[in-house]
Specification:
alpha/beta, 3-stranded mixed beta sheet, globular
Length: 329
């Protein structure tokens, strides 16, 4: 069953006028306030035969990607050379200094501060009431402080600080959607900040944050990929294996679609983003929002966290999204 598109909201974004190509550069969008697993609209199979119980698994360094007799076992290829990096205390070096966010009171942000008001409102938008009620006061205060100013332990040049409050709210939105709760410890914020991506050397969270990996969500992203491309990752349309470089790009696309990363401010390619937003807006697409298959009619702009993850996968994964937009029937 395919559901028509559901609308949420966004706090800025790269916005395209439908009747013109004028593009206004604002903050990264915040996703719609729809959370959790939805049973309605679940589609058990894809047009090209991807089974419902797909599991994206880790592969040994030399292991090929293969289709097994009992269903697709999608093995993540070994990381590219530039992905190899030192790990400090069990987490990637880039986020090892990230620590628990001090409250806004501790940071001398007054109750009347517009910054506090903005962060509190963004928190209310991206965190469902049920999640907020299940969190401690300390966890809620830390999350609001994270939106406002970022984590402790890093300087003003850290990517998790240089992005705006709206983008940090998008990170919190991504965390809650994939983990089902607010961050509860420092490593949760290290994981969250790892979602601020440098596309030239991204942190592979499926390898470097295994405790935060969601193998129940990755198959849904895989199914969105196969619906769009009409093929399995790591294979061409004829079922022949792709080169390791091309296969690697396919798997990065699936990670973008699963974990909703944002881009470090200094690493954005606005021309490519514009091209992907235009292509996305012009196209009619089917994609999984949670377990619900949603139809986006042609002419509608990116609207929620899933839409924007599709745009970022197009712009930064290296998979041939723009080429596929041009050749889709």
């Amino acid at each position: 069953m395919i559901h028509t598109r559901e609308y949420g909201f966004f706090a800025g974004g790269l916005v395209i006028g439908i009747s013109a190509i004028a593009i206004v550069l604002l903050q990264t969008p915040i996703g719609a306030s729809v959370y959790g697993v939805r049973s309605a609209g679940t589609d058990a199979s894809d047009d090209i035969g991807v089974p419902a119980a797909v599991v994206v698994q880790e592969a040994p360094a030399a292991a090929p990607t293969d289709v097994q007799p009992d269903g697709l076992i999608a093995e993540t290829p070994a990381p590219r050379a530039e992905d190899a990096r030192r790990v400090v205390g069990g987490v990637p070096e880039q986020v090892a200094k990230v620590s628990w966010p001090s409250s806004l009171d501790a940071r001398n942000v007054t109750a009347a501060s517009p910054l506090r008001t903005t962060a509190t409102n963004l928190f209310a938008r991206v965190v469902p009431d049920a999640i907020a009620r299940g969190a401690s006061d300390a966890e809620e205060r830390a999350a609001i402080a994270f939106i406002a100013l970022g984590p402790d332990g890093v300087d003003d040049r850290d990517p998790c600080v240089t992005i705006g409050a709206g983008e940090r709210a998008a990170l919190l939105d991504a965390y809650v959607r994939t983990q089902g709760a607010l961050p509860e410890q420092t490593t949760d914020y290290q994981f969250t900040c790892s979602l601020v991506t440098n596309p030239d050397a991204p942190i592979d969270i499926t390898k470097q944050f295994p405790d935060h990996r969601r193998i129940d969500l990755e198959p849904l992203a895989l199914r969105t990929f196969t619906r769009f491309f009409g093929r399995l990752p790591s294979q061409n349309a004829s079922g022949e294996p792709l080169s390791q470089v091309l296969a690697d790009r396919d798997w990065w696309a699936i990670k973008y679609l699963t974990y909703f990363p944002v881009l470090a401010s200094s690493r954005r390619n606005l021309d490519r983003e514009r091209a992907c937003i235009t292509a996305f807006t012009d196209a009619s697409l089917q994609s999984y929002h949670g377990e619900t298959l949603v139809l986006k009619p042609a002419g509608e702009q990116p609207d929620d966290l899933w839409d924007w993850s599709f745009v970022r996968a197009c712009a930064y994964s290296g998979a041939p999204f723009l080429e596929r937009f041009r050749t889709r029937p």
